[in-house]
UniProtKB/TrEMBL annotation:
It comes from the Bacteria. Residues 32-41 have a biased composition (Low complexity). PROSITE patterns: TAT. Residues 32-54 are annotated as: Disordered. Coiled coil: none annotated. It comes from Streptomyces noursei. Residues 1-39 form the signal peptide. Keywords: Signal. InterPro entries: TAT_signal, Uncharacterised_LppY/LpqO. This is Peptidase M23.
Amino acid sequence: MAGDRQQTTDPHTGSPRRRVLTAAALAPLLAAAPTPARARPAPLPHEPITPGGRELIEPVHTTLADWKKVAKALGRTGDMKRKVMYHTGLPRRDLRVDSHHVRVKAPLALGSHVSFVRYADDSTLVMGDIVVTEHELQDFVDTLQQHRLHLTALHKHLLSQRPDVWWVHVHGHGDDPVAMARGLREAFDGTGTPPDKASDPDQKVDLDTDGIDDAMGAKGSVDDGIYKCIFVRREKITDGKLVLPPGLGSTSAFNFQPLGHGRAAISADCCMIAKEVPRVLRALRKADAKLVELHNHGLTDEPRLFFVHVWAVGDAVRLARALRHAVDATDVVPAGS
């Protein structure tokens, strides 16, 4: 737009003429003009304003007694972790899976599990990572959806596996944890997942665990013959408005299965934020670890989390020392700290 027009008189003819005011000439006039106040929209009554734009809801402490009905609905017993997570493990000991000529034990990479968390608004979150065969997969997902339980990730943890096995990440949030447990139970019953039964887990491991601990910078633990070093993210992780307890959906795990003579098969899962991904992947490849999958586990986590599953076979301590560089490239601490 050229500008406004102002009427003047021609000095030669005395007739009126129009003078054009340019945009440059108009600018000081417009700057001096008062600007009408703009009303700020009022916040919706059900969405109170908070510093981060969200009203975060914290988890609350619970005990095993609070989850008796959930345990009955699942048909399996669980345990408490960090006083807020009711955790139930469902290892697929029924499966005989080989990867790169290694017979994979259930605690190495075939350990299904689900965790329930109660929140300050009396709602409950359930998250899980479930092992299913390719034959079981579609019916398992259909059953979850019938019970309003959501699939948030589908991927593999192992390379060159026989038979084909998939890992399904499950998410549910609502006011009735027992109903969610019943839905999970129905989905599990459509698979070969073994029923809950007493077992005598193997607490012996033929590895230099002190050497692994020194190399990884964390004290590991034995889980049915598998040595595990676990790390958790330092920062607060949220899922929508829910604050996730440390370690729920945000762990890095390095599992060592003894192969004899100090050697181990390692199945690992590194949890990263976006800016850490390139450095971690470089560190893993320099450690001679094979990359399996790079993906997300959740839909609305913040900060956005990425996970890379890896596989390695060799001297356990040497591999642990090399994998430590990948750990150091992420903002994590040992789970027990």
